[in-house]
Structures are given as C-alpha cells and as structure tokens.
Amino acid sequence: MQEWLESMLALLALPRFGLSTLFVVAFVSATLVPIGSEPALFGLLKLNPELFWPAVFVATAGNTLGGIVDWWMGYGAHQVVDKWGHSRSHIKAIEWLEKLGPRACLLSFLPVVGDPLCAVAGWLRLAFWPCVAWMVVGKFLRYVVMTVALLHIFPGGIPGVTR
Fold this sequence. Notes:
By secondary structure, the chain is mainly α. The chain has one domain (about 20-155). Helices cover about 70% and strands about 0% of the residues. It has helices at about 1-10, 20-30, 40-45, 50-75, 80, 90-100, 115-125, 130-155. The longest helix has 26 residues, at about 130-155. The protein is globular and about 50 Å long. The termini are far apart. Keywords: Membrane, Transmembrane, Transmembrane helix.
C-alpha cells in the first residue's frame, strides 16, 4: 500500500508533471470563477507531450467535479431563486431546460453559460447521475478537441513564450 501511495504521489508531483495543478485549475474553472483551464492543459502538454491522455482525463475529472459542485449549489439555491426568477426569459429558459432534462448538461462545456447551466440543473433538481454523465461527455470532448486544435495550431509552442 505504501509503495502504491508513493507512486501516485510521484505521478502527481507539481514540479515534474503538474497533473495536480491541472486538476485544481480545471476544478476551479468549472465553478463560477471565470478562468480557463485549457491554457494550463496546453502548457502541461507542451512540456510533457507523453501525458496527453492522463492530462485530458485529469482535466475532465477536475472540471466535472467542479460541475458537480455547481449542480449542488443550484440544488441548494432553489428557494432563493424562486423569489426573483419569474421573468419571461427566465421562464422560457427553465422550460427549455426541463424539456431537455439531464441532456442539457452536455452543454456544460460552453464558455460563460456552461457552468451556470450545471447550477440550474441542480436548481431544477434534474436527475444527478444522468447530469454528471452528460457533463463528463461534454467536458471530455471539449478537452480533446481544444487540446488537439491548440497543439495543431501551435506545434512549437506559443510564440514569445519560452520554456
């Protein structure tokens, strides 16, 4: 057990790989804090290209857990929002989300609206595990597509940024 724990800690060591930092950045970026995790993922992969899949999985896990926090925040905020949320556009958005159900969480990868969407899914009390499953799919696909695109656009790294 000790040996396994040491090997896991060595894998997540900050100076060597940065997977733990990537996890934290992806987690925080999925909450309502407006930061992006793609630059951290891109930078890590420029330094360690052999970590493509582990880094994508770590970023997906961190970002999904942040989405789960959003879901629970929305779930707990239901009564507070009920007091002011009766505008026409609000009601149309709620109807649209209720119609889509947990599948709406597939759109959790979208900038600006994706993270609040997870909170609204919790507020609407959409089924937790199906929402999580759709979050994972959307966030995983975003990381794969964005990372492959960035690595293709900047194969030598970002100009002006030294290693």
